Amino acid sequence: MYVYIVSLQCLKMNLWLFLAFTALAECRYQKRGALSCPDLCSCFSGAEVVCSQSSLKHFPIDGLSPNTSRLSIQSTRLSNVTASHLSVVPLLNSLQLYHNNLTSLPSDLLKGVPHLNILDLTGNQLVLLPPNVFSHASLHSLVLKKNRIEKVDAEWFSVNSSLTWLDLSGNRLTGIPSALLQKLPHLENLDLSHNNLQELQPDALETLHRLETLNLAGNKLISLKPTTFTHNLKLSQLFLQENQLRDLPATLLQGLQHLELLLLNQNQLQYLPSGFLEERESSLRMILTGNPWVCDERMEFLKKWLAVHRENVIFLEEVTCAGPEALKQRQVVSLTDSELGLVKSDKIRN
Fold this sequence. Notes:
Radius of gyration: 29 Å
Pfam families: LRR_8 (PF13855)
Structural class: alpha/beta
CATH class of the domain at 36-148: Alpha Beta
Order of helices and strands: HEEEHEEEEHEEEEEEHEEH
Keywords: Leucine-rich repeat, Repeat, Signal
Organism: Seriola lalandi dorsalis
Protein name: Leucine-rich alpha-2-glycoprotein-like
Number of helices: 5
Helix content: 10-25%
Number of strands: 15
CATH superfamily of the domain at 36-148: Ribonuclease Inhibitor
Distance between the termini: 111 Å
Shape: elongated
CATH architecture of the domain at 36-148: Alpha-Beta Horseshoe
């Protein structure tokens, strides 16, 4: 029994010593990390640096570890970043520079960060960008959301760019050139929402065979060509809400067998053409609210489709008639054929 107790005490002592040495090593590691962390920034795990002090004016070169793989500079007064700045972090794979005061970028910005996959420039004051600025072999995700960009340039990218995610939402774009998208054949997610787009070029999306999510919400689109999405057969989410769409081609969705979400709310649609939703999978979800639906004989297709696919329509009870006067605010799905003028009364037939 005595031997057992002594062994147990030795085990406890060894465990205590192990924990003490571990804590001491961690403390020393944290101190070393603190010494190598830039002013006005916080460092985590030796590879992630976050700088979010509003008093920060300059790129935090001093103290930035060359092993940094994730760098976030957000909500600061930073107004300039160069290739020389980024060269001190050659292992960088994620760079977030959002909500700062950047007005321009140098064309060679990314030359010293060959492993960079993610670049987020949300919420700056970028207007014009130079050629080749994003001609970077490893870049997969580019976010330029909420800047002041009025025009995009195909020369930003190299041919056959590896980009899979592009977010240009919240800018001032009036068009998107086909030449730019032709350089992005691997694109899976494209966000052009909340710009000033009035139309899409007929072949704009032609080369985006891998596109899965397309966001065109919050623009000024009035119409779409029948072949707009013909080549985007992997499309699963399509956002068309908050535009000025007045009518849609019957074949607009033809071939989009993977489509799971379609938002058409807050447009100027009065009816959907016959056949528009034919061959849709049961997994499709839609929002149709906020349109001035005219409940006459042209509403026959949508009314019948809604009756069979109630579970597919989000806010179904809010899909209501804007006219004629006698049917205002009536739920479309509740209308009868006679109310739509599809059945002649006995009195008229006689």
